[in-house]
Amino acid sequence: MSRPIKLAAALVLAALLAGACAAIPTSGSVERVSDDVGLGESSVRYSPAGPTDGATKEQVLRGFLDAMLAYPVSSRVAAQFLTKEAAKSWRPGEATTVYSSATPVGDGRTDAIELQVEAYLDEQGRLSAGTGTERLAIDFRREGRQWRIATAPIGVLVSVNWFEDYVRPFELYFLDDSGS
User: Fold this and answer.
1) CB half-sphere exposure, 58, CA atoms < 13 A
2) Residue in 157, 161, 167 with CA at minimum distance from that of residue 67
């Protein structure tokens, strides 16, 4: 037998022997274990893409919304969808609006996005209930030959799925002057 054939036969035999060692147990006691906490939580990293050349207004708006879903949290890519002036004045840490749906609307003269708002998170981390449907006017401008958003929203806009995956509630207690 040639050397390559012997090597292949040895590898096949090793694989068969290793497979024979694995088996499903048919006897013994069953032990109940606790569920893994956080098993359904996402810890996936997500780095969204920036704007593409020749993107339409709707593509720029959808890209901007998508970029705010970056994890770990970063507003760097989202700011690329804004005009230079809007990016300088945008304060993403000012608030978080949590939406269950976001629908771009426009008639050629007026552009907006309709959000089904589920919750607000302010700069201090206080959560409040959403107000239902909210319409945000979106002002687009051309920078060079590309569409960019000229009016940044207050804070960031994130989907309810992102919010449930990455934001955790916790209680804070502050002691009074007596320390009690």
Assistant:
1) 8
2) 157
Six-digit token string for 6: 């012997």
Residue 134, helix vs strand vs coil:
strand
The model carries a pTM of 0.71
Cis-peptide, bond into residue 72, ω within 30° of zero: yes
pLDDT, one tens digit per residue, over 118-130 is 999 998 888 999 9
CA distances from 84 to 48, 49, 78, 141 (A): 19, 18, 12, 11
Is residue 132 within 8 Å of residue 125, measured between CB atoms? no
Q: Where are the alpha helices (DSSP H) in 48-173?
A: 57-67, 76-79, 84-89, 160-166
pLDDT of residue 154: 93
Find out whether 113 and 140 touch, Cβ atoms under 8 Å: no
Residue 172 is which amino acid?
L
Let me know how long the chain is: 180
- Which residue(s) pair with 119 in the sheet? 98, 129
Whether the CB-CB separation of 60 and 147 falls below 8 Å is answered with yes
The β-bridge partners of 132 are 117
Query: Three-class SS of residue 20?
Result: helix
What average pLDDT does the structure give for the chain? 85
Strand, helix or coil for residue 103: strand
Which three-class secondary structure state does DSSP give residue 67?
A: helix
